[in-house]
Design brief:
heterodimer; A: mainly beta; six-stranded mixed β-sheet; B: mainly beta; seven-stranded mixed β-sheet; four-stranded antiparallel β-sheet
Chain lengths: 115, 117
């Protein structure tokens, strides 16, 4: 059972436009969400995160929105650049006591930004 | 510091052979994770160390798999009697974990790709 769902396996946008990548989750215990970007032949690289106490976090061209009631988050990239072309993974961390945390990952969305 | 280093980058082996992967994390990071990723999937958690202690193992980690981090620095992941289903990218990640902190940002290595023929 996929607890973190990225329902769009791929997305294509024009350079300069907005890219919106979506992620849904089922476990209400998740309290921390992260986006990672992955280029071919490299490991995933951290992009941006959001805690469940917030509904928005912004870092330069990247903004993550969290809608807890809908169990939905989205990553907005504005403006999109060809170098943003990569696979984007949504990941969530379950709550609980202690410092033993592991991430639950979505399947990824492949973003292609066309010049 | 050059980040998280994994070796070898690619290993091709015959079914039934043993393989070992090594991960050198970022030196000041106390937490080390192993993940497995197959094509079209997200990374799947295998195991996690805090310093030299292995604190959690996924049920994906069968008894053919063993991971160690003897001195709390580098780690090895050994797969015995490999099977074709073991073919995947094995990712190592490290983080600086603080007591009772939230989810840590992981720094990943480039991965070790295993192909079992």
């Amino acid at each position: 059972d996929q607890q973190v769902k990225q329902n769009s396996p791929s997305l294509s946008v024009q350079e300069g436009r907005i890219s919106i990548l979506n992620c849904d989750y089922t476990n209400s215990m998740f309290d921390y969400f992260l986006w990672y970007k992955k280029y071919p032949a490299e490991g995933p690289t951290f992009l941006i995160s959001i805690s469940s106490i917030k509904d928005k976090n912004e870092d330069g061209r990247f903004t993550v929105f969290l809608n807890k009631s809908a169990k939905h988050l989205s990553l907005h990239i504005v403006p999109s650049q060809p170098g943003d072309s990569a696979v984007y993974f949504c990941a969530a961390s379950p709550g609980g006591a202690g410092n033993n945390r592991k991430l639950i990952w979505g399947l990824g969305t492949s973003l292609a930004v066309n010049p | 510091d050059t980040g998280v280093s994994q070796n070898p980058r690619h290993k091709i082996t015959k079914r039934g052979q043993n393989v070992t992967f090594r991960c050198d994390p970022i030196s000041e990071h106390n937490r080390l994770y192993w993940y497995r990723q197959t094509l079209g999937q997200g990374p799947e958690f295998l195991t996690y160390f805090q310093n030299e202690a292995q604190l959690e193992k996924s049920r994906l980690l069968s008894d053919r798999f063993s991971a160690e981090r003897p001195k709390g620095s580098f780690s090895t992941l050994e797969i015995q009697r490999t099977e074709q289903g073991d073919s995947a990218m094995y990712l190592c990640a490290s983080s600086l974990g603080l007591a009772d902190s939230g989810a840590n940002v992981l720094t990943f290595g480039a991965g070790s790709r295993l192909t079992v023929l």
